Amino acid sequence: MSKKLKNFINGEWVESKTDKYEDVYNPATKEVLAQVPISTPEDFEDAVQAAQAAQEKWKKVSVAKRARILFKYQNLLEEHKEELAKLITQENGKSVSEALGEVGRGIENVEFAAGAPTLMMGDSLATIATDVEATNYRYPVGVVGGIAPFNFPMMVPCWMFPMAIALGNSFILKPSEKTPILAARLAELLDEAGLPKGVFSIVNGAHDVVNGILDHPTVKAVSFVGSKPVGEYVYKRGSENLKRVQALTGAKNHSTVLADADLDLATKEVISAAFGSAGERCMACAVVTVEDSVADEFIAKLKEASDNIKMGNGLDEGVFLGPVIRDEAKQRTLGYIEKGIEEGATLVRDGRNEQNEDGYFVGPTIFDGVSQDMTIWKDEIFAPVLSVVRVKNLKEAVEFANQSEFANGACLFTTSALSVRYFRENIDAGMLGINLGVPAPMAFFPFSGWKSSFYGTLHANGKDSVDFYTRKKVVTARYPEPDFS
Ligand code: NAD
């Protein structure tokens, strides 16, 4: 019997008032792991009430004490690393080694947030006029809502709640209904670390909970990570309701391989970025532009490397490529492969040949001769499908990539410093990689997508997250010099 999941409200596991549940699958086996409640507006209201009451007390707890809870949480997450990774693999499908990487990135955010005493410091100026000084204090914003995608069940929520709570906010998480199991474990460990009841809540579900976060006047800030259409909706509706919103959305990341690059390194990195996590990464390499003179050699290397990829259940030894998340995602991917052929791209490697009916598998797929009028170039496919484009030089590669509506990450493989500088100055993307395939910045830098990959002003992570989860109060004070006569 699979487990009926509960919501975490006011520090207790409570059954949702809904009668609607969805199955949560292991995408590698189609086994039903749990049932997730599609919670009601009443469930959300209970969470908001508890979060607001908790925040009134939490904001007065010293920042050093709050940080100590995060240090303890960090240790607990380290202790449970393997268990957490296994849970991620079961509900998401990525390999255990990738899941362990994800857990590590999540812990890194907790570690960064534990620096809250320093990060939350304001600034001051002793003399802004004669006998007048100014001090800028930071305060939490109040109750914060977080809406997460399925592809990083641990890392993405960790971009949000550790910093939000370290800074004195309370936080309500709506995990993806496709991957809600890991989130429950994150809450249990927070409880074990000593977080007061109500400071962190989970309300499982879909649209109703999202709309609750966007509409409820008590929720002051919203962090969203997910697809572009939903991110746009979240940004517009949340802003209309006068909230702070940061929405990190879709991507179509381009990598460029120049003739002077180390082609073996480029192959290894591009393969890992294109097919790791089954291409279900906002930093996945979706398109590789390669200089004409090395294109045949590079494509042959890509093909050979992808022929050696082991596909299967991410829990099994040596598996690199797991399934996509659901049958719907698999059918969508097969549709894109059909469309690519129909629109005239050359199929270099056909992942359809390796369908494995145990789960929702699609093998590594590579197209050559992709152009900008093709659907496979325009759309975010979010699957193990890589498009190759042959270009004359770096200038043409940059112009090609800059036509995309998305601008999350971009990578360059070269040994030329001049090319690196040209690329950095001219490419439209918020996160760049030089001779590496997945340029996801560490927790202390912002996760800084551009164009349709991000809506808002302050990004997730880094100092941006401190600004996003705090508001400022500037005190200007006159202290006339005492008369000592
Ligand atoms: P999604 O947009 O379908 O879902 C994200 C969240 O929004 C989920 O919690 C879901 O329940 C909710 N949601 C979905 N449809 C909704 C609707 N109509 N109304 C209200 N809420 C809705 O995204 P996903 O499929 O879970 O995740 C994949 C997407 O996330 C990809 O586009 C990927 O690029 C993006 N992503 C972006 C980043 C980034 O940093 N830019 C990071 C990870 C994932």
Question: What would you say this structure looks like, in words?
Answer:
This protein has 485 residues and is of the alpha/beta class. The protein folds into 2 domains: 3-249 and 444-474, 3-Layer(aba) Sandwich (Aldehyde Dehydrogenase, Chain A, domain 1); 253-434, Aldehyde Dehydrogenase, Chain A, domain 2, CATH 3.40.309. 39% of the residues lie in helices and 23% in strands. The protein has helices at residues 41-58, 63-79, 81-92, 96-113, 116-119, 155-166, 181-192, 207-215, 228-240, 263-275, 292-307, 327-342, 375-378, 394-401, 417-426, 462-468; strands at 3-4, 7-9, 12-14, 21-26, 31-37, 123-129, 132-140, 143-147, 170-174, 200-202, 219-225, 244-248, 253-257, 285-291, 346-349, 365-368, 385-391, 406-407, 409-413, 431-434, 450-451, 454-455, 470-478. The protein has a 7-stranded mixed sheet with strand order 15-16-17-14-13-19-20, sandwiched between helices. Strand 11, helix 9 and strand 12 form a beta-alpha-beta unit. Helix 10 (263-275) crosses helix 11 (292-307). The structure holds nicotinamide-adenine-dinucleotide (NAD). Nicotinamide-adenine-dinucleotide binds next to helix 8.
Brief write-up:
Belongs to the aldehyde dehydrogenase family. IolA subfamily. The protein is α/β, with parallel strands linked by helices and 485 residues long.
Please describe the topology of this protein.
Elements: E1 3-4, E2 7-9, E3 12-14, E4 21-26, E5 31-37, H1 41-58, H2 63-79, H3 81-92, H4 96-113, H5 116-119, E6 123-129, E7 132-140, E8 143-147, H6 155-166, E9 170-174, H7 181-192, E10 200-202, H8 207-215, E11 219-225, H9 228-240, E12 244-248, E13 253-257, H10 263-275, E14 285-291, H11 292-307, H12 327-342, E15 346-349, E16 365-368, H13 375-378, E17 385-391, H14 394-401, E18 406-407, E19 409-413, H15 417-426, E20 431-434, E21 450-451, E22 454-455, H16 462-468, E23 470-478
Parallel strand pairs: 1-5, 8-9, 8-11, 9-10, 11-12, 13-14, 13-19, 14-17, 16-17, 19-20
Antiparallel strand pairs: 2-3, 4-5, 6-7, 7-23, 12-22, 15-16, 18-21
This protein binds nicotinamide-adenine-dinucleotide.
